[in-house]
Amino acid sequence: MKKMALGFIFIISILILSACTKPGSMFSISFFEYMDTYISISVYAQDQKTADEYEVVIQDIYKTYHELSTNYEPLSEDSLFLENIYTINQKNNQVIEIDEELYHLIEKAEEIRVLTDGYFDISIGEVVNIWKNLLIDEENGYLFSEIPDSVFQTVLEQIELINLEEDVIELTSQNDRFYIQVKSTHAQLDLGAISKGYATQLVFEYLQGLDIQYFSISAGSSSIAVGQNQAREGGIYNVSLANPLKTDSTDRTYGMIYVKDIGVTTSGDYEQYATHQNLRYHHIVSPKTKLPMQYYHTITVLGEDLGMLDAISTALFSMSPGTLDTWLDNHQSALNLEIIQFNYDATIVTHMITTVFEENAS
Amino acid sequence: MKKNLSVKNKRDILLVTLLFTLLGGIFILFRLFAFQGEAAVANVYYGNSNEPIVSIDFVNYRVIKNYDQNVSNSYDQIYPIIDEAEGTITLLGDYELSGVRQIVVIQYHYGNKTVQIIQEQSPNNICSREGVSSGWPLICLPNRVRVEFGTTPEDFTV
Questions:
Q1: pTM score
Q2: Contact state of B38 with A300 under an 8 Å Cβ cutoff
């Protein structure tokens, strides 16, 4: 009788212990529908139903900022929003009421414009569109090809005619209503370098607000935000850095960083570019020169606010190394940013604080 | 007689207890040592080759064709066929119907880091009945196509 009782106790212990090993697990959420990006989220949840509830909120965040920030199409007729960037771009010089979400996004973009001494500027859409069309226009684009000299000269002439005005955006609010006026006859807004990161930051904050420790958000090939990694001791994620000169080979990374509870974003010239006289012309346009600059192949920025990181990596990409160093001297500590430069001459320069960067053995 | 039955019952109970203990132990070992964590890559192999013919990179969301299948000119396609829109890879298996080699269609999902054989011809269709895999290998015989999962040092590339 004693043996029988012991046997049952043993079996029950086994079942209880095995149940304790896995109270919840990681669930995957992924979608293609918003911001022309494959968004993939891995999140710890008690069960599929809970993960599904997270997905509803997360998709809604990306959907909201996709609809508000697109400059390709107006809002749908049944949209609950007042205006989006496409419609604002049709109404220069008018005072327009906008939704609070878009107001705060543009407000953030303007803060970063000031912070980066104008190297990030969402009002240079006219110039950005010219360079983007030169690259990815379905009929006349030169993506990954050599731009003929005659075409290149025509583009330079078009750009020369555009007068970029400074400080054209005026935001006001009154009685919980929000307004924008673009004080220019021709300036076009483009939130392409901030809206995805901004939305990802909101998702990051949503998951943190639920006290979820284990998660990762991959918003396209250039931006991630991670909590902690359940599968690795110390919760660390290993993040490799894409080698912009070896995108087609199997050895396509140049180094690794080890991170948790952080955002990482890279601006680079390797995913969309055309060449002219051995220089890459890409989609990151300097507000100062109206040209894509060739100081770096990639700039990777690590920090706590992915909305800010996207915009700052875009700004730093157009700064000369000297200007970038001076800017970092003034802002790196306060903003707690870490930077990895893959320079145009293929040298690598890092400005780290605590994160470990390991360059691949060559 | 009553005493004999009692002894027999005790032996039966002991046997059942041992059996449960053994099953419990196997269950715990399975939980401890089965494939855990997320795969970073799934490699598709054909025939006896140890070089993957296709690699599905779950970290960077891309499918890499490493080389073409060696097939006779009577087949008017180059295999494997990678359809990124549908998320499928199609190879020619070794199983023949009326002298024609049959296709094996593998469906992959980047977000879930999973692979499934969704179409194949074979006597028992064992590999297409295995369902969605996120870690255990899928082996299609007699088509001689297999999918094996692996890891890479990185979780993401930016």
A1: 0.75
A2: no
Residue carrying structure tokens 């995913």: A271
Structure tokens at A312: 């700052």
Interface-testing mutation among B13, B27, B154, B157, with chain A (most A C-beta atoms within 10 A): B157
- pLDDT tens digits, residue range A144-153? 899 999 999 9
ipTM for this model: 0.84
pLDDT for res A21: 47
- Which residue of B lies nearest to A238 if distances are taken between CA atoms? B154
Strands (E) across A196-319 are located at 215-219, 223-226, 237-242, 253-259, 262-268, 273-276, 279-282, 296-303
On the CB side of A293, CA atoms within 13 Å amount to: 21
Cis peptide upstream of residue A287 (ω within 30 degrees of 0) = no
pLDDT at B73: 87
Domain definitions of chain B by residue range: 1-34, 41-150
Residue A118: which residues within 8 A CB-CB, separation 6 or more?
A: A166, A287, A288
Cα distance from B37 to chain A (closest Cα, Å)? 6
Pairs from A352-357 (Cβ < 8 Å, separation ≥ 24) = A355/A257, A355/A258, A355/A259, A355/A262, A355/A302, A356/A257, A356/A258, A357/A255, A357/A256, A357/A257
Contact, A141 vs A133, CB < 8 A?
Answer: yes
Whether B27 contacts chain A with CB within 8 A = yes
* HEC per residue, chain B: CHHHHHHHHHHHHHHHHHHHHHHHHHHHHHHHHCCCCCCCEEEEEECCCCCCCEEEECCCCEEEECCCCCCCCCCCCCCCEEECCCCEEEEEEEEEECCEEEEEEEEEECCCCEEEEEECCCCCCCHHHCCCECCCCEEECCCCEEEEEECCCCCEEC
Beta-strand relationship, A253-259 and A356-359? antiparallel
Q: What is the distance between the alpha carbons of residues A334 and A176, in angstroms, rounded to a whole number?
A: 31
Average pLDDT of every residue of chain A: 92
What count of other Cβ atoms lies within 10 Å of the Cβ of residue A17?
Answer: 12
How many Cβ atoms sit within 10 Å of the Cβ of residue A35? 20
Confidence at A167, pLDDT banded by 50, 70, 90 = very high
Backbone dihedral angles phi then psi of residue A144, each to the nearest 5 degrees: 60, 20
Class of domain B41-150: mainly beta
Q: Are B119 and B105 in contact (CB under 8 A)?
A: yes
- Say how far apart CA B66 and CA B51 lie, in whole Å: 8
Q: Is A8 in a helix, a strand, or coil?
A: helix
